[in-house]
């Protein structure tokens, strides 16, 4: 059974590229995309993804507020926050939303897939592009 993913990214080209590339992997399935945080919340409720790849900076509702709203409604969904800005304050801000991980957009695509699979399969993961991650009691992610 593939890992279901929602991509929340305001840049259309990047959103489409993520979708095409992730859908090419048999272990992953993009079930929906969203162009802003409000749409991400709606699509998450509709499609109940295993993982949300959430851009931190989006219109209408930012990634942090969208992550909080999604996790309030779907606490088992894992949020992986994506951002170009990897200053420690931004990472802390993202993690305070309840996000399960913060990934630099400088990540190599194969490494992104490896991180997504590990989170989806509740395995431990280590990566120089995974700048922070939250441990969930009772789960294997460290």
Oligomer: single chain
Report the structural category.
alpha/beta
For the residues shown, what is the average pLDDT? 87
Count of separate DSSP helical elements: 5
The largest β sheet comes out as: 6 strands, mixed
Q: In angstroms, what is the radius of gyration? A: 13 Å
How are strands sequenced across the largest beta sheet?
2-1-3-4-5-6
Through-space gap between termini:
23 Å
Strand content: 15-25%
Helix content: 25-40%
**Total number of β-strand segments?**
6
Shape: globular
Give start-end ranges of low-pLDDT stretches: 136-142
SSE topology string: EHEHEHEHEHE
Provide an overview of this structure.
The protein is an alpha/beta fold and 142 residues long. Helices cover 39% and strands 23% of the residues. It contains 5 helices and 6 strands; from the N terminus they run βαβαβαβαβαβ. It has a 6-stranded mixed sheet with strand order 2-1-3-4-5-6, with helices on both faces. Helix 3 (63-73) links the parallel strand 3 and strand 4. The radius of gyration is 13 Å and the shape is globular.
